[in-house]
UniProtKB/TrEMBL annotation:
Pfam families: DDE_Tnp_1 (PF01609). This is Transposase DDE domain protein. One of its GO terms (molecular function) is transposase activity. Residues 309-322 have a biased composition (Basic residues).
């Protein structure tokens, strides 16, 4: 659909498809199931590892883990099975597992993964200063993944950060097997885009009801989350139609919350007013026809109605005098109504 609309994916690395991998632990559920009613601990309905196409901004794979205690790394073999040559897997340090890195390399794909503290490896040669990136000073050095003779040698990109991370780290190390034609600065910048998947997860939680505390069965809870991934992708198709018919800056200023609220408010009435047969007549049966319809609708939308609300500077809290005589006050007296 995106291609048919003339949507051109932004190439993070020309010639490569960049895929972010990250997991989401489903929040604890209510104890509605019979087996949970006498349990003291919080019931976890599972977790899910999702693959996010950074260039198309859609989720294209979901790996379900029904066991809430399972490690995300148990999905590594399934992730490798779905990878194609020239794909670039971008992930955080809990995916920095030597067998996983080796399998990605053997599949003729590439990785940009943050080095985990448990993976020491063997540093080779001297660290070279490459220059500055948008977040700090970039260095590069070769690293052998282990002391074994046949161990893979990768590039270790280090960024000395201008500002510490939220965890307090002042530098990060990223491992990659991308060829030298991809500069260390580009590798560092590509890794930064991993946060876009976390942003997408936040949109799921805030606007698409991806989790409900009343849904405690693992199969139902993970199915609900997968449906929200599908809804997110459908919304991205709508955004592609908007990009094709409106100025890019105007579309980027749209609030996902306002779009969700509009769809939620109008859908129920449309489902009541429009019959199944009428829907069949309204919706084109070909991709070309559907694209034409979406573009036609997109042209009529006033994007000003859906802009993000930009919060002003936070005001300092005023000093509040304590009422020693009582723990409460009369609002009517303060307003001069009595």
């Amino acid at each position: 659909m995106q291609d048919a609309m003339g949507f051109t994916p932004w190439e993070l690395l020309p010639g490569y498809r960049c895929l972010s991998i990250d997991g989401n632990v489903l929040a604890k559920s209510d104890k509605r199931l019979k087996d949970l009613r006498d349990v003291k601990g919080a019931p976890l309905p599972g977790k899910l590892v999702a693959r996010f196409d950074l260039q198309r901004q859609v989720f294209d794979r979901a790996y379900v883990l029904l066991d809430g205690h399972a490690q995300e790394s148990t999905c590594c073999d399934r992730i490798v099975d779905d990878i194609q040559p020239n794909d670039v897997v971008i992930a955080d340090r809990h995916y920095c597992i030597v067998p996983f890195l080796n399998k990605l390399a053997q599949s003729k794909s590439f990785f940009v993964i943050r080095q985990h503290g448990r993976l020491k490896g063997v540093l080779l040669g001297k660290r070279k200063r490459i220059g500055r990136s948008s977040t700090g000073v970039v260095y590069e050095q070769a690293l052998k993944l282990s002391a074994a003779e046949d161990a893979m040698v990768v590039r270790r990109i280090t960024v000395i950060l201008d500002s510490p991370t939220r965890d307090g780290d002042e530098e990060i190390h990223v491992l990659t097997n991308l060829p030298a034609t991809v500069s260390a600065k580009d590798v560092a910048e590509v890794y930064r885009h991993r946060w876009e998947e976390e942003t997408a997860f936040n949109i799921l939680q805030m606007t698409l009801t991806c989790e409900k505390s009343g849904v405690g069965h693992p199969k139902a809870a993970t199915f609900l989350f997968c449906m929200s991934l599908l809804a997110f992708n459908l919304r991205q198709t709508i955004f592609a139609a908007l990009f094709a018919t409106h100025d890019e800056s105007e579309v980027e200023a749209i609030s996902h919350f306002h779009v969700s609220k509009n769809v939620s408010d109008k859908t129920e009435g449309m489902l009541i007013a429009i019959t199944e047969d009428e829907w069949a007549e309204l919706i084109p049966t070909t991709i070309k026809g559907l694209v034409a319809m979406l573009k036609k609708i997109a042209r009529t939308i006033d994007l000003k109605e859906y802009r993000k609300s930009v919060r002003g500077p936070k005001k300092k809290k005023p000093h509040r005098s304590r009422n020693v005589a009582s723990s409460h006050v009369s609002t009517a007296k303060l307003l001069g109504l009595t």
